[in-house]
Amino acid sequence: MQNPFRSEAVAFRFLLVLVAAVAAIVLADQLLGRWAALAVAIVAAAAFTWWVVAGGPPPEQVRTAPARRGGPGERRILVVANETVGGEKLRACIREKAEGAERAEILVVAPALNSPLRQWASDEDPARRQAQQRLDDSLARLRDDGIEARGEIGDSEPLQAIEDALRTFGADELIISTHPEGRSHWLERGLVEAARARFDVPITHVVVE
User: Fold this and answer.
1) What confidence tens digit (pLDDT) does each residue in 1-13 have?
2) Contact 81, 110 (CB under 8 A)
3) Can you give the residue ranges of every domain in the chain?
4) Which end of the chain is less packed: N or C, by CB atoms within 10 Å?
């Protein structure tokens, strides 16, 4: 779930809608009575709850290019994974990509996925601790494979985590690792297709059992 107030524009639109909802409740109370006002309030509350759980309005589909890319002989690989971050198939893909370059810079980003309730309450600490543990394990396994990589915890919204990383890391290639279809929330939400539409960088999708 992405933060419904990620930008000032979204927060301002929400404020306008909130003012309109309050005005509608007051008007319904004055013209139609208490029960009509209550019905309007229930509809407004239900709409607000859906908006929060859904993460607010969808992100603008603007194709974003990395800030910079690797120089001659250098390949910069951005890896985004959560529960699959330690999977052998993902590590094999990273090894394959790294072996084809004179010098490989690898950044592994693990979004700190959180429950809707904790996200709304801004309680991200447990999610970040779990993501950090998985990330540390994955980096240790990559080092055992002879691959040097660094990692960081990303935004709980995977698309935002990718955008943040591309802004500073400037990858030549992006690897997205997910569970198989039917087990992956990211696939259910169309993450891979959305990333390909939004980011101007080659994307490899790895499915890890």
Assistant:
1) 445 555 455 555 6
2) yes
3) 8-54, 74-207
4) C
Which has the closest alpha carbon to 73: 41, 44, 105? Answer: 105
Report pLDDT digits (tens) over 123-154: 457 778 888 888 888 888 888 888 889 999 98
Class of domain 74-207: alpha beta
